[in-house]
Amino acid sequence: MDCSHVFDFKVSRLIVVFTLFLAFFFVTPLLYAQGDTLKTTSTEHAEPAAEKKFNLGKFALHHVADSHSWHVIGDITVGLPVMLYTPSGLVTFNSTEFHGDDEAKLVVEKDGQHFVKLHEKIYYASATANEKGEYADVDAAEHVKNLRPLDFSITKNVCTLLLSVVVILMVFLKVANSYKQRSGKSPKGLQSWIEPLIIFVRDDIAKPNLGHKYERFMPYLLTVFFFIWFNNMLGLVPFLPGGANLTGNISITVVLATITFLMVNFNGNKYYWKHIFTPDVPWWLYIVLVPVEIIGIFTKPIALAIRLFANITAGHILVLALIGLIFVFNSVFVSFVSVPFALFIYGIELLVAFIQAFIFTILSALFIGMAIEEHH
Amino acid sequence: MITGSIAAIGAGLAAIGAGMGIGKIGSSAMEGIARQPEAASKIQTAMLIAAAFVEAVALFAVVVALV
């Protein structure tokens, strides 16, 4: 079949897009130059704040990190409860009392104690401000020397965790109910959306890796699969119900990996432990092999945690970096390239959200399967 | 004048390595599927797992470069 006309069309489109892309890069320096001349002519009433350089790295890292308040749009921020455990008991207040301050410049007094917020961490305030106006003792390497209270606050991530629990419970209780009411009939509604996924976890993840004992581990595998997948998807929603980077938070992924670690080692049979402590090699190789095997027990869950954390965080940073390019070049024309490209990355992220949930679950199943395997 | 951290070069090198690795995995999986189309789903699963291991190394590099 002759498809050359389609090919020509695509090539011409590619050329147009590429020229536009190059054109922006040539145009932006010009815009920059114009902006510079404008600035020099109006130096009398130029605000120093407006000329503050946009720091893309800080911007991206701030947005993937956890936060004590939930930014909605513009200046609108939703406050979240702050709960601090101090030597004199529990202290609670709303995070709006910091009035959006994140530079330790505003001191909140509660129960005779003084707190400041610096880079989304809460410290005991210093008695006096330093030369930058911060009520914190910050050294040259930006290390904060102030003490911190134990922080049990409901942060953005904790909020999303609770929200995702509610969403998952709602979905699965509804599906479980419809299985009870419609037993023997074909699935309907939400049921027909969830059923293929459950069968996918059972037939493609549990059965090939766990063998005939798969039923014992199905609850764990299903929970971990849907928890990671729902939270990956919630993290991709850019506005209020989503927006928190929960599965891109190292604490969450470490907890998930720790559960897998416990599942593997508590279910490990004698063959599993024999393989670690007395492998089938000449005895003098034990000096090398046994430590390696013991390290192997721990590296598997660590890799599991870091893989999920880094994948999701990298995806978020990529989208933020592409959008941030508009502000780096300080030109609206960059958006014609960066916004479609960010949209494209978003599409890939939807796929990654699923693949990472799948990878975490299948590797958990694989490690458990290796631990419960019987020797023939 | 060029500014920035040398960690970016390291992250780039890791990306090259992972790219080559995932490319090899993908090409081999394609060959396998072409030879035995009925085993496509099994090959795909194995391919994804292998790709995840390679990708993890690149992401370690990204994490190290970020920190």
Gross morphology of chain A: globular
> CA-to-CA gap between the ends of chain A?
55 Å
Q: Can you tell me the residue ranges of chain B where pLDDT is under 50 for at least 5 consecutive residues?
A: none
Number of helical regions of chain B: 2
Across the major sheet of chain A, the strand order is 4-3-8
Alpha-carbon Rg of chain B, integer: 16 Å
Mean pLDDT of chain A: 80
CATH superfamily of chain B: F1F0 ATP synthase subunit C
Catalogue the unreliable spans of chain A: 1-51
The CATH topology of chain B turns out to be F1FO ATP Synthase
Transmembrane segments (chain B): 6-25, 46-66
Domain V-ATPase proteolipid subunit C-like (chain B): 7-67
Site (Reversibly protonated during proton transport) (chain B): 55
Protein name (chain B): ATP synthase subunit c
General description of the model:
The complex is a heterodimer of chains A (376) and B (67). By secondary structure, chain A is mostly helical. Chain A is built from 9 helices and 8 strands. In chain A, the strands form 3 sheets. In chain A, strands 4-3-8 form a 3-stranded antiparallel β-sheet, with no helix packed on it. In chain A, a hairpin with a 2-residue loop joins strand 3 (81-86) and strand 4. In chain A, helix 8 (286-329) packs antiparallel against helix 9 (335-372). The longest helix of chain A is centred in the last third of the chain and has 44 residues, at 286-329. Chain B has one domain (2-66): F1F0 ATP synthase subunit C (F1FO ATP Synthase, Up-down Bundle), CATH 1.20.20. Chain B contains 2 helices and no strands. Chain B has helices at 7-35, 40-66. The radius of gyration of chain B is 16 Å and the shape is elongated. The mean pLDDT of chain B is 84. Classes of the chains: A mainly alpha (376), B mainly alpha (67). Chain A binds chain B through residues 61, 204, 208, 303, 306-307, 309-311, 314, 355, 358-359, 362-363, 366, and chain B through 41, 45, 48-49, 52, 55-56, 59-60, 62-63, 66.
